[in-house]
Design goal:
mainly alpha; globular; two-stranded antiparallel sheet; 7% strand
Length: 117
């Protein structure tokens, strides 16, 4: 069950970030123009915020049930790898050698994090 909840959190957080990025293509959601606060809220922005709220609730559950020193590095690493991959396919961002080495090191770190004593 823990693996499912962790996967759900990673997917919700990654999805929220990707959706928020898609919403940001129309410009910043809030900006100051001519002495007034202007809102540029798109459906993507709203969906991203809702998804982020959902992921936050899962996050609170995870940190209440598992060791903080384990769950945070684990989920953060998975989120980095997922965002890295999605940014290539969705936003056509470029993979550089340095980025690829960083991802490989993150994956190696995950392996070490999950080794049994």
């Amino acid at each position: 069950m823990a693996k499912i909840i962790i996967a759900l959190y990673v997917l919700a957080t990654s999805s929220a970030l990707i959706i928020l990025k898609l919403g940001a293509k129309a410009g910043a959601p809030v900006h100051y123009l001519d002495g007034r606060l202007q809102f540029n809220i798109t459906p993507y922005t709203v969906a991203g915020i809702v998804m982020y709220g959902f992921s936050f609730l899962i996050y609170v559950y995870l940190i209440s049930k598992y060791d903080l020193g384990y769950i945070i590095p684990l989920t953060t690493a998975f989120i980095y790898v997922l965002i890295f991959t999605a940014s290539f396919f969705v936003f056509k961002e470029i993979f550089t050698t340095v980025k690829l080495i960083g991802i490989v090191l993150i994956v190696i770190g995950l392996v070490f994090l999950n080794l049994k004593k």
